[in-house]
Amino acid sequence: MRVNIQDTGLWFLQSDIFATWKRRQNFFLWLYGIPGCDKQTLKKQAKGVWIVLDALDECRTRKGLPAEGLLLWTKELLNSEQRNVHLLVTSRQEQDITSGVTELAYIDDIVPIESDLITDDIRAYVRTRVSEDEGFKRWRARPDVQEEIETQLIEKADGM
């Protein structure tokens, strides 16, 4: 079950690299992270073409002959006549994607989703679930137990 917690993802949405991605034409940005770190944060915007490819590592057509696959398509799209393309790709950091992306993006346009960047998001998610989820209802009268549950879940999350 996906729960959207208010103000999560702000570490990215308020970053300089996100502002640059929105402003520059034909710009490729790659966010990568471990499974479960919630790489989905963007929505469609106006003016130009805004494309978000989420979970590129799960795409079956990304590999193949040099003339095939989604990475080739992204390269062709960025080099096409379309002059206002903003492309954001999320994935795990896998070798074939890393190799393909380094041909499309500058090193500063590759953003690792590190656990220290999303710790506040994880904390907000866990706190909301522990305080509002029916499965934790019996602990609502025990703030000390709720706090221990939150602490343990956050520590064990490891950026997921």
Description:
With 160 residues, the chain is of the alpha/beta class. The protein folds into two domains: 10-113, no CATH class; 116-157, no CATH class. The protein has six helices and four strands; from the N terminus they run H-H-E-E-H-E-H-E-H-H. It has a four-stranded parallel beta sheet with strand order 2-3-1-4, sandwiched between helices. Helix 3 (70-78) links the parallel strand 2 and strand 3 (85-91). Helix 5 packs antiparallel against helix 6 (143-157). The longest helix is centred in the last third of the chain and has 18 residues, at 115-132. The protein is elongated, with a radius of gyration of 19 Å. 18% of the residues are buried. The mean pLDDT is 78.
SSE topology sketch:
Elements: H1 10-13, H2 16-23, E1 27-32, E2 49-53, H3 70-78, E3 85-91, H4 95-102, E4 110-112, H5 115-132, H6 143-157
Parallel strand pairs: 1-3, 1-4, 2-3
Helix pairs in contact: 5-6
